[in-house]
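Our platform keeps sequence and structure together, in a single record for each protein. Because each token names a local backbone shape, the row as a whole describes the fold. One such record is reproduced below, unchanged from the form in which we store it:
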Amino acid sequence: MASFNTFFIFSLAFFLIASPFIQVARCQSDSDEGTTTEDASDIGIVGDDVQDFDGIGTFSSAPGIDTISVFPNNIAKLVKAGEETELLVGLKNYGESSLNVVAIKASIHLPVDHRLLVQNLTAQVFNNGSVPASAQATFPYIFAVSKFLQPGSFDLVGTILYEIDEHPYQSTFFNGTIEVVESVGFLSIESVFLVTLGVALLVLLGLWIHGQVQNLSKKSKRAPKVEVGTRSTDASTDEWLQGTAYTQSLSSKSKKKK
């Protein structure tokens, strides 16, 4: 009997992380420090890639500028490959002059070496990003990593570009690790493969069981054994042998016995 090996393959990971992190106030005054908050709805988002910000070089950070960033309801910093992810950038102007936010850009790097660039993300441009002195504002940055990017840990470097008195500056608002995960759709490639493999195994198992049942039925239908005792010669069946050497030998044997 041929041996049959059954393989069980089951690999499914669910990522379910939904916890509130930080609520960013957009229209709340700070009476203790005498600061005001700009409404992010008035920042006037222009669009993506209006200007190539990758080749303009780097600038220093202006004094009196603080930045903070947060992934809304995403404390684990999970980024689904190929899907949009929102990142809120908070900027506070402690200086004496107003500033104008020009754009937000970001890039993906390998954690082992930031010189190894993985992907330049889309730049978000603003046409009305003015932040007065002693004020703060929140700017949304929506990005998407490549859908072909393999799941794993990567470093995200985010930079906000702004102008003060027509002088360009930039500040890094995020420089840390994010976790890129596969986008789970209705049917992923792995799911299709597992389902196909499972169906194939069930078909092979059914064929093997069918063969075993047929073998058992054949064995049960063997012909019954017939016991053979002393052979008696029927005269009617030996009539056609009369007069032959066979009948003569039989008659001679019977005479000798007498």
Notes: The two ends are 60 Å apart (CA to CA). Residues 1-41 have pLDDT under 50 and may be disordered. Helices lie at 189-220, 245-257.
